[in-house]
Design brief:
about 475 residues, Rossmann fold, Transcription Regulator spoIIAA, binds 5'-deoxyadenosine, binds iron/sulfur cluster
């Protein structure tokens, strides 16, 4: 199979159309800016995961190329882009109610354009809902049509007709779109898109399509540029990074190895690795390269073999534990984190106890836990559901068990000095700065706002389950 076929790179002539429409939009916006004596502005709102954050940085980059400044509130914007998530019902409800609130802005500013994209609108029933119940939404495009933004925006602006972009025939990878990064020291780099796994609870394979990977040379150039610009923390993104470049002559471990050769004071991370194919080769490459952060996120989902089978996860507890053992053997100081779903259809008390047991056995540094949310079109949504009260009772018990484990893992860090990448003033407490350790633990400390983006040594003097506190030394 040729590389082009596997990658489905958007062909140059299609990208040229994108850049041509972007130019047209730029000229239009320059004219409008002069007429009103003020720059045109775009506001980008993101729901969901890091992949969406990364896509939104491209949307902001494209907006900038079309002559928009980036606004910090929707009220100031002439273009509002909402990048939606579909992974749980809660995320969809939040996106819809936020879009609903933008109606009054449209009433104030007739020229305001509202575009909705991302996973939620890649589902037919949501597109229909937006078409009929949200008439002030101007255009819509799905996850594989990001590069169509300039065209849709231009056509809607000039012709006035609402546009509901059909999903691309082939799921594609668009190279060369501008990226307006949120941070000057942490960066997302998408290395692949889509998922082929079809875990029975998950909507992602339906809304993000089949797996396709970027070429290694494109990723290497992007990371080299980030390193030159002084980025310190670079996260490679994919729904299942272990499937990177399947069918090509290199794999994910080769990519990590190649990226580790790049000069600069930065750490590499990745999300997410599926336990069924987290390879020994990858773990060896991590252990050999200090550039790769000592953090492994390995989503378990459930500690019951019966549930893992029903979830279509293709591993059992024993195989999972074997991988954990190998990771810890090679990197004893590794931070391990996971995702857990409680209340999957058919989960019995015994199945749930199995999950608690796995938490106690693996002793994760942190977990991301979710109450199962039925997703229309997935097999699990058709199975017999368990009552909400049971789900939430189990969810609280899960948190309680993990809090004790997290605390007991954090307490021995008191008195130690940790290297922390500072994220600036804490969102919850203006008196403190916050930062993250290599293992991604959050640390609070006193300092100057100019510390943001720097590596600092922090002596830990207090530990809680979710956070460490200390002072700069
Ligand atoms: N309900 C609850 N949690 C889900 N996740 C994915 N789909 C669902 C769902 N339908 C969780 C999984 C996944 C994480 C990103 O979101 O734990 O690893
Ligand atoms: Fe969803 Fe499973 Fe794919 Fe992750 S690996 S995106 S949980 S289907």
């Amino acid at each position: 199979m040729s590389e082009k076929k596997i990658n489905n790179i958007v062909p140059p002539e299609v990208m040229k159309r994108t850049f041509d429409f972007s130019e047209k939009m730029l000229r239009l916006n320059e004219k409008r800016s002069i007429e009103r004596g003020e720059k045109m502005r775009a506001y980008v709102l993101t729901f969901g995961c890091q992949q969406n954050e990364a896509d939104s940085e491209k949307i902001a980059g494209m907006s900038r190329a079309m002559g928009y400044e980036i606004a910090d509130t929707p009220e100031k914007a002439d273009l509002i882009m909402v990048n939606t998530c579909a992974v749980r019902e809660h995320a969809e409800k939040k996106a819809l109610s936020t879009i609903g609130q933008f109606k009054h802005l449209k009433a104030k500013n007739q020229a305001l354009m509202i575009g909705v994209c991302g996973c939620m609108v890649t589902q037919e029933h949501r597109r229909e809902e937006l078409r009929h119940s949200y008439p002030y939404v101007d255009f819509i495009f799905g996850t594989s049509s990001l590069h169509r933004l300039p065209e849709l925006l231009y056509e809607k602006t000039v012709k006035g007709k609402r546009l509901f972009c059909p999903e691309e025939e082939e799921y594609q990878v668009a190279e060369g779109l501008g990226i307006e990064r949120d941070s000057t020291y942490r960066a997302w780099v998408s290395i692949m898109y889509g998922c082929n796994n079809f875990c029975s609870y998950c909507i992602v394979p339906y809304v993000r399509g089949r797996e396709r990977s970027r070429r290694m040379e494109d990723i290497v150039s992007e990371v080299e540029a980030l390193a030159r610009e002084g980025y310190k923390d670079i996260t490679l993104l994919g729904q299942n990074v272990n499937s990177y470049a399947k069918g090509m002559e290199y794999d994910f471990a080769d990519l990590m190895s190649r990226l580790s050769q790049i000069d600069g004071d930065f750490k590499l991370r990745f999300m997410t690795s599926h336990p069924k194919d987290a390879s020994r080769k990858l773990i060896d490459v991590m252990a050999e390269n200090e550039k790769i952060a000592r953090h492994f996120h390995l989503p378990l989902q459930s500690g019951s073999d019966k549930m893992l089978k029903a979830m279509n996860r293709h591993y059992d507890k024993a195989q999972y534990l074997d991988t954990v053992r190998y990771i810890r053997e090679k990197m004893p100081d590794i931070a391990l984190t996971t995702d857990i779903i409680v209340g999957f259809p058919g989960e019995t008390e015994e199945d749930f106890e199995g999950t608690l047991e796995m938490l106690r056995e693996v002793r994760y540094d942190m977990i991301f836990s979710f109450i199962y949310s039925p997703r229309k079109g997935t097999p699990a949504a058709e199975m017999e559901q368990i009552p909400e009260s049971v789900k939430s009772e189990r969810f609280s018990r899960l948190l309680k068990v993990q809090n004790e484990i997290s605390l007991s893992k954090n307490l021995p860090l008191v008195g130690k000095t940790l290297r922390v990448l500072c994220d600036g003033v804490s969102k919850n407490n203006e008196e403190l700065l916050s930062g993250r350790t290599e293992g991604n633990k959050i640390v609070f400390f006193h300092g100057e706002s100019s510390d943001e983006g720097k590596y600092l040594n922090i002596k830990i003097d207090r530990a809680e389950a979710f956070a460490l506190y200390g002072e700069k030394i």
